[in-house]
Structures are given as C-alpha cells and as structure tokens.
Amino acid sequence: MSNLQTTLTGFSRYRGGEGHYSFILHRLTGLGTLLFLTIHILDTATVYFFPSLYEHAIDIYRSTPFMIGEIFLVFAVIYHGVNGARIALFDLYFTKRWMAKSQRPSAIWTLIIAVVLWLPAAFLMLRSLLVHNFNL
Amino acid sequence: MERTIEKTNLNINYDAVAWKWMRYSGLLLIPLAWGHVLIQDVLVGVHQIDIDYVAMRWATLGWRVYDFLLLAFAFAHGVNGLRQVLHDYVQKEKSMRTISRLLLVLWFLVAAIGALAIVGGVRMP
C-alpha cells in the first residue's frame, strides 16, 4: 500500500508537464472505460440469461446520475482513442519522427482534438437528458 | 552513417507481443468503439433502447459480428491495460503472477458470458 501512496503523491510532485498529464489522463480514461465496459457486458448479457431483468438495467442507465456519467464516459472513450492513436502511430509507424520536444504540443493537440470531438456529442446527450428527465 | 543503426535481436517474450497487440487492437478499436458509442449513446440514446431494440439490431448478422468483434477486442484490450497498470504498483513478481492469473480468469468469464449472449441472442421475456 505504501507503494500506492508513493505513486499517488508522486503524481502531484513529479513535474513532467504535458506528457505526464496525458499519461495520467490516458490511464484514468482507460480504467474508467474498462469499469463501465465490464458492467455493460454483464447487463447486456441479461437479454439472453435473464431477459426480464434487462428493462431494470436500462432504467438505471436512464437515471440522471448515470446519464451525466455517460457524458463523461464518451469523453473518456474519445480521449483514450485520440491519445492512443498518437501513441500507436508514433510507436509503430513514425518511429523516426518521435522527438521529445514535439511531444509537448502533440499532447496539447490531442486534448484539443478530443474536446472538439466531444462537445457536439456532449451537447446532444445533455439535450437528451434535459428532454427526458426534466421535460424541457 | 547509416551503419550506426543496427538491428538488435530482442527476446520476443509475452509482454513484447502484448505491447504490440495493445497498439494494433487500439487502432482497430477507434472505429469499432467510437462507432458503437456514436450510434447507441449519442444518436439513439438510452431512452430509445430496450429489449426490442436489441432484438431488432441482432436480427442483422452484421451487427452481431460487429458486437462480437467489439467485445473480443475491447475487453481484452482493457483487461490487459489493467494488468499493465497494476504491474507498475505490484513489485513482487509472485504477486503479479497471481494477479495476472486472476485477471485471465476474470477476462475469460466475462468475455464468455458476453459471447454466449451475442450467439444465443435475445430471449423475449
């Protein structure tokens, strides 16, 4: 556990700048998505194993806290994808183009692209939340 | 000067394969996962989704194959990612071996449940 503590406090002490933050964000968005994915596989599987329970599972997803969580989940999936593409492309195809210096702007651009892709999705989902749960 | 770059022979162990596989599966997951999220979460929305909707979607074989690929790649990518994260925190090799085995069992159970549901299809209540 002291290991974990060192790492958690180290996250705030280590001043790695943009690359460090993109590393943390990549992990958090990945772990968050995995948590949801595990629940999502099991609840969808009820359509075969316990069909009468599916409606109940969907009702939970329709609640306001879950719909807000869903908006953040979509950000997590988008950011993890954009940043993952950056990592994969540099690691697999543009290995010689990788430069420490260009990683800083590259990390910032990744965040900007992710937010720009997320905003229209967030708008539509927020609208759906307001229409269905608040009768607006 | 070209000669200064030499090819080195590294031992290709499991983690070297996993490292590469994470990148290839990640690239494949961008269209698969984004497409799924865009359709179901953003365009259709959770209020339009019910068991009839799932039955309608799975009536098309193409969507079942799509969901099966998504399940296979996304969940394995995620569980292996969790294994990589835990590797940074667990220093004892023996503990890490145990954790890896537990994750393999978890992966197999959940993936099998999901796969059975996709193959079995919707049973109307």
Features:
A: elongated, B: 125 residues, mainly alpha, 4 helices, 0% strand
Tell me what the structure shows.
The complex is a heterodimer of chains A (136) and B (125). Chain A is mostly helical. Chain A has one domain: Up-down Bundle (3 helical TM bundles of succinate and fumarate reductases). Chain A contains 5 helices and no strands. The relative contact order of chain A is 0.12. In chain B, 77% of the residues lie in helices and 0% in strands. The termini of chain B are far apart. Chain B is mainly alpha-helical and 125 residues long. Chain B has 4 helices and no strands. In chain B, helix 1 (14-44) packs across helix 3 and helix 3 runs antiparallel to helix 4 (93-120). Chain B is elongated, with a radius of gyration of 19 Å. Chain B has helices spanning 14-44, 51-58, 61-89, 93-120. The interface between A and B is large, with 44 and 46 residues.
Q: Compute the CA-based radius of gyration of chain A.
A: 19 Å
What's the end-to-end separation of chain A, in Å?
48 Å
Largest sheet of chain B: none
Assigned CATH architecture of chain A: Up-down Bundle
Blueprint of the fold:
The complex is a heterodimer of chains A (136) and B (125).
Chain A: H1 2-13, H2 18-49, H3 51-61, H4 64-92, H5 100-134
Chain B: H1 14-44, H2 51-58, H3 61-89, H4 93-120
Concise description?
The complex is a heterodimer of chains A (136) and B (125). Chain A has helices at residues 2-13, 18-49, 51-61, 64-92, 100-134. Chain A is mainly α and 136 residues long.
